[in-house]
Design a protein that fits this description.
By secondary structure, the chain is mainly beta. It has strands spanning about 1-5, 10, 15-25, 35-40, 45-50, 55-60, 65-70, 75-80, 90-95, 110-115. It is globular and about 40 Å long.
Length: about 120
């Protein structure tokens, strides 16, 4: 399975973006998928995670209440809806399994929050 994140871009503080994670070469069914991010000069951190069925979702404290993770197993997609963005949300966002699989780290998608 290959995972590719997309949907990043430039947003203003308070704005919104929707990230997508597309899987190819296999199915995401029954697999926990997480979003991670890496801000400039910082280590990569977990942002959110969703169970294989979508019935359980987890969020880092820093994004809880602002980000929503979802998935569509029929389309082999996982999404991250980000709202009320702040400059602290700037970074490269990646999707991966949870726990992460080294081989599945892609290039990520850049999110820049700036006025």
């Amino acid at each position: 399975v290959q995972l590719q994140a997309s949907g990043g871009g430039l947003a203003q503080p308070g704005g919104s973006l929707r990230l997508s994670c597309a899987a190819s070469g296999g199915t995401l069914d029954y697999i926990f998928i997480a979003w991670f991010r890496q801000a400039p000069g910082k280590e990569r951190e977990g942002v959110s995670c969703i169970s294989g069925s979508g019935g359980s979702r987890y969020y880092a404290d820093s994004v809880n209440g602002r980000f929503t993770i979802s998935r569509d197993n029929d389309k082999n997609m996982v999404y991250l809806q980000m709202q009320s963005l702040s400059t602290d949300d700037t970074g490269v966002y990646y999707c991966n399994t949870y726990p992460s699989t080294e081989a599945y780290w892609g290039r990520g998608t850049q999110v820049t929050v700036s006025s």
